Amino acid sequence: MSKLMPLLYLLFLATVSLYGQRPNVVMIYTDDHRYSGIQALGGMQVKTPHMDALAKEGASFSNAYIMGSFSGATCIPSRAMLLTGRNLFELKGKGHIIPKEHATMGETFGRAGYHTEVIGKWHQDNASLARSFDDGKTIMGRGVYLVDHFRMPLWDWDEDGRFAHEDAYLLTYGKTNTLERRPLSERDQRGPVGTHTDGPHTSEIFAGEAVSFIEQYQKETPFFMYLAFHAPHDPRQAPPAYLAMYPSDEIVLPPSYQPQHPFDNGHMFLRDEQLAPWPRSPEIAREELAGYYAIITHLDDQIGKVVAALKAAGAYENTIIVLAGDSGLAVGNHGLMGKQNIYDEDGVHIPLIFSGNLIPEKDSNHEAFVYNFDIFPTLCAMAGIPVPESVSGKNLLPVMEGKQAGVRDHTYHAYRQFQRACRSGDYKLIEYVRSPDKDWKRGDIVTGSRVTQLFNVASDPWEVYDLSFLPEHSERIDKMRQQMRSMATELGDYKENIEGEKYDFWDVYEKR
């Protein structure tokens, strides 16, 4: 039996006696939503009053990260880490499949007597989806994608996990503005070509389903809801009223804005980086950032509706709400557009808020180094549920209770075979290599650059001032390189540990 069990049991008894039942859980996961994409956290121009309220009514973490990715689709391993409580190197392959021996968050709460519900985006295999939840509403992401928030292929819940291509449908507005559903056809071209007149936005669909579930839920057992939005992932579409909030000529560019990245980071020419032309002029960067802020503010209003529904139903007092993003996003920072990097704001720094009536210290911010896979064991601790043996994340409840300052003294990050980083104290070291790769168009290639960067993230959170060339930091770099190598060994960072991975960062790095 876990050493945490006595403490968890006492916490469970205290929760039951105070509120009459175990707490509900609403796990909200947003897509490509960087830390500064919440006004209360980053202080930027984006308007997020409802997410700001969650921070005020809860505990936020200023140093929350994803560990990285071995795929350009970083949301795949990010979601696998969240759902399993396992780090990047403990996943099956690149995170597409969650094997049965890796207990999922939904599965764990279900076994503890919760009703488990899923709404929105799912990026793993059908079998793990079906075993993780009792029921679901609208599901997105099962192999058909039109790159359009207003024309998103959807599925109804299938308890057997089939989600067949022919069962996908679109929600559209009829002639009398009524909501209708129709099957996909060959005429449905890839977007983004949809507008608010064609059908509801994905954020509206998923939030609406969550509100309906909350309003109709009558069971005595508590519920666990996984609400996975697709926003603010591109295309950066939002209804006109939200776009009008952000005139592009009034957007202030972040300190790390650059027209182009100063060197080849190994993965410069993928889809995300083709969303805007090179160089990224200030005008282009402002337009992209305006669209990003607009879709976030629209998302914020939808999240506000979900919280309002909890309060109207009398469920808010006994519900833990978690809000987290699945990755950072550059949107012009360092001359990049996507998230295929390990800069903080551009790739790995995420918002993380635990909110609601049950949070011990309201309006609190914690500087502890945490990962998204720490959410799973933390929720288990808060609900008095034993943590599965397959989970390796850390329980953050003692940090929120003020009993300890942190759960680890460093972070480690990886992006494919090209980039590695470690954060220790105020400093972050990033190492890049030039490595073989395979491009689906160009075949076998060699790409990337041998570059070292050192940032004081505490004083330079946008990672603008590279300190690696300064003689006074040479000893620090040597020590951090040793620390990074030690972390890699401890975590199992080698290609044989990643199913399907042909290239190894360390093979190239140590031959420099």
From TrEMBL:
Stretches for region Disordered: 182-201
Cofactor requirements of the protein: Ca(2+)
InterPro entries associated with the record: Alkaline_phosphatase_core_sf (IPR017850), Sulfatase (IPR050738), Sulfatase_CS (IPR024607), Sulfatase_N (IPR000917)
Keywords assigned: Calcium, Hydrolase, Metal-binding, Signal
Molecular function as annotated in GO: arylsulfatase activity; metal ion binding
Domain Sulfatase N-terminal: 23-385
Family: Belongs to the sulfatase family.
Designated name of the protein: Arylsulfatase A
Species of provenance: Neolewinella agarilytica
